[in-house]
Amino acid sequence: MIGEDLQITIGKRHFVELLTQEAIQNRVSELAQGLHTQYRNLDPVFIVVLNGAFIFAADLLRASGLNCDIQFVKLSSYQGTTSTGIVQQILGVQIPLRGRHVVVVEDIVDTGRTMKYFGKLLENENPASIEFVTLLSKPDCHETVFESPYIGFEIPDKFVIGYGLDLDGKARNLPAIYQLAE
Ligand code: IMP
User: Fold this and answer.
1) How far apart are CA 179 and CA 182, in angstroms?
2) Segment 36-89, tens digit of pLDDT
3) What pLDDT does residue 75 have?
4) What average pLDDT does the segment 164-171 reach?
5) What confidence score (pLDDT) does residue 182 get?
6) Is the four-CA dihedral 125, 70, 178, 11 of positive or negative sign?
7) Which residues of 60-75 are buried (b: 16+ CB within 10 A; e: fewer)?
8) 54-64 and 21-39 are packed helices; what angle lies between their axes, rounded to 10 degrees?
9) Whose CA is closest to 135, among 113, 104, 106, 111?
10) C-beta of 64 in contact with ligand 1 (< 6 A)
11) Greater pLDDT, 146 or 77
12) Residue 83 confidence (pLDDT)
């Protein structure tokens, strides 16, 4: 990986900076404040979707100052390529969710399939409420309605890396976010 501040090259692919480290940190602080206000007396359970959300979740949850449980799930790829594919949990939630206020932390909502199917799995556990927090959203790609007060940035339909997001396992540790150049 060759990095100049505004451009990154991985193999033959070139990426240009989309969101600076400062812009990300400012937005994460705003999201954290919103979560603090809404959940400070509710003892929420945050469910972090691995791998991509690990850096976002670490910054967000430290900044939130909330008294909370934190759990991790890993969701498999879809079986097949159709929208009816099944999302499987590889690492499951280890505590009961019945009656709890659940907040799912995602890196990016692309088609929205992952959140749709994971949301259905969570509903079966009878939590008091379910909310989704995502750093990024690509509205042009959504197959179903995705609404949340906790969307960090809406971005164009281009592949992005950095701040947890990867290309074949690379670039997750970049502090800014880069999009694939034309
Ligand atoms: P969805 O189910 O189509 O919404 O896909 C969500 C998942 O796809 C995310 O959690 C990411 O792991 C992955 N993903 C979608 N778009 C990108 C991207 O631009 N860069 C890296 N990963 C992505």
Assistant:
1) 9
2) 999 999 999 999 999 999 999 999 999 999 999 999 999 865 443 344 456 666
3) 84
4) 93
5) 73
6) negative
7) bbebbebebbebbbeb
8) 50
9) 106
10) no
11) 146
12) 41
SS3 80: coil
29, with CB counted inside 10 A (0-12, 13-18, 19+), is middle
73 Cβ closer than 6 Å to some ligand 1 atom: no
Q: Which fold has domain 30-176?
A: Rossmann fold (3.40.50)
Domain extent listing, the chain: 30-176
CA–CA dist 14, 59 (Å, integer): 27
Quick one: average pLDDT of 132-145?
Answer: 93
How many whole angstroms separate alpha carbon 143 and alpha carbon 43? 32
Residue 175 C-alpha from the chain's centroid = 15
Verify whether ligand 1 is closer than 6 Å to residue 108 (CB atom): yes
One-letter amino acid identity for 112?
A: G
Distance (Å, rounded) from C-alpha 87 to C-alpha 148? 21
- pLDDT by residue (tens digit) across 8-40? 999 889 999 999 999 999 999 999 999 999 999
- Is 110 a residue of the active site? yes
Atom of ligand 1 nearest to the CA of 160: 19
Tokens of 13: 């692919």
pLDDT value of residue 78: 44
